Amino acid sequence: MDLSEINFAVLVASLVVASTPLVLAALGELIVEKSGVLNLGVEGMMIIGAVTGFIVGVETGSAYIGMMAAAMAGALLSLLFAFIILIMQANQVASGLALTIFGLGIAALMGHPYTGIKSPQISTISIPFISEIPVLGTMFFQHDLIVYLSLISVLVIWYFLNRMRAGLILRSVGEDHDVAHSLGYRVVTIRFLAITFGGAMAGVGGGYLSLVRVPQWTEGMTAGAGWIALALVVFSGWRPFRLLIGAYIFGGITILQLNLQAIGVNINIALLSMAPYLATILALVVISISRFRGNRGAPGCLGRSFVKIT
Amino acid sequence: MFKLIPRENVSPVLSLLGPLFSVGLTMIVGGILFYFLGVDPFAAIKMIFWDPLMSETFSTYSIPQIFIKGAPLILIALGLSVGFKANVWNIGAEGQYIMGAIFGASFALSLYPLESIVIFPAMILIGVIGGCLWSMIPAFLKVKFQVNEILVSLMLVYVAEQILALASLGFLRNPDGAGFPGSRNLNQYTSASNAEIIAGTGIHLGVLLSLLMVIFFYVLLFRHSLGFKIKLLGNSPKASGFSGDNPNKLIFLCLILSGSLAGLAGIMEVAGPAGQINIDFNVGYGFTAIIVAFLGRLNPIGIFFAGIVMALTYVGGELTQFMLNLPAAAIQVFQGMLLFFLLSFDLFVHYKIKLKGNK
After folding, report:
1. pLDDT at A183 > cutoff 60
2. Residue ranges of domains in chain A
3. ipTM value
4. Where are the alpha helices (DSSP H) in chain A?
């Protein structure tokens, strides 16, 4: 009885680790979409973050420096997207796809010499006192800094969007860019900032994947995590706390599936590996049905180009 | 600062210039990239774009290869372009391509070693149905529950890849294959083999079909009312509704049309150049076809040329891998860059740009 309880706690702890890249990337995309921009390049930015973070982490020996480099790489790549859609007025869907294709290619090029190397260790920080609470402590309070950071980000982003003037401006730009523009807000600048933030978050998410979650570099290692992050934003109805819950449910399915594979349950591995993707589709269907028609909660100008005609 | 003035009519000259300009720019920036990879940029660019066509040593092999690799790209891109025109984004063609191959191959292999002339056409039909069914999932979810088709079709690529693994390691594995993954080779099964139609070149029925489909789609888009309805849905959904069109029907049609064509490409490939169902059967044609569709400006004739150019980068890319030891991923970077330039260039197609301040 005791034994099973410990296993459960460890399971939840690994679920938290598995979900963290998704939480980070999806939170970034949430801000981007709230500003009215649909960036389908999350997968590309994540993998760039993964490879850059891994290379810098290995070279410097510090996972945290790697993670910072991952954020910068993701942000840098997202600037390319921002330029193309904000300045060159390109179609957002197609540009996001291009970003993903491009990112996957660049990452494969960069990462080639680093295949099969072990990543530097990341230190876990046990939060004093509460980490000693029997089950809960193991689950949530004996993790590395990035996990805590992801949880704090949820809070901060919720606060930013719902309680701060800047968040209100961001949302107004996303709801109706023409009105926001006529009120004197700088639509393009705000969107530039939002996209860059989204890129940095996706980058860190990718870095966490290659430095902590896996931890090594293999080509195409994001395996759709960026797309799942995009699905999570829709699933959450553009709300940070729901997004966190969604990511943890999703991480739970992934971990459960991996554990079932490990203990050799009599289900085909391929069938188990499908589970996360099927679960994503199911979640999207459920959320769409429950919201009746359309995407209530979706920013009004999501995916539309802003052309200043004065 | 600059000021954008929307053009009343899309400039046809610039619309044509865009792809050419983008290819040129990709060559330049790609050359710089190759330089940093320690490869002679001029040799690499020449090897990708020139040698497959003109070099005496390579061209006899390369030229038919361009058509063989171009065929699935053109087939898939034609289907996708119709949806893209209507703002329907099927980006899971890779999955529909895989399912087309699995459906068709499963049918043929279940009849092995029976020989009959009906097997081949039936196999192709079933392949098309396979791709169609796979695209019907996002199509159904989209029209019934407004579920985002981009995410669903993409998730289904990963599912299809797992089914592919399941097939090549399990239910389609060659019983005489000494335990190696992969199905029987369809090229050794006369009734199901998509054999070459010009001896010694490898050019198969799929190449011919891709050319026929270019014509079919040209007629569909420019000479048939359905093409008009699809464009109307994309440009002005409201007007589309007022004219009495059912947007759901059109969306559904766009998705299953692209799925069917991806399925066709899949079954042609597995019975022809690939020969068998195996774990590494899919090589990303479904994703590259997205670039082809845009490079061809969503126009069937354009897609034909774009497919050829993109196939050239594949064939040339293979050459540079062998001869210059350039990593395979470099070509992917190349293709991504091409799409960036192309999309950016659209600005000049849709807007006039004036310098502000010069009053």
Report:
1. yes
2. 2-290
3. 0.86
4. 2-34, 42-60, 63-82, 92-111, 134-140, 145-163, 165-175, 177-182, 187-208, 225-236, 240-262, 269-290
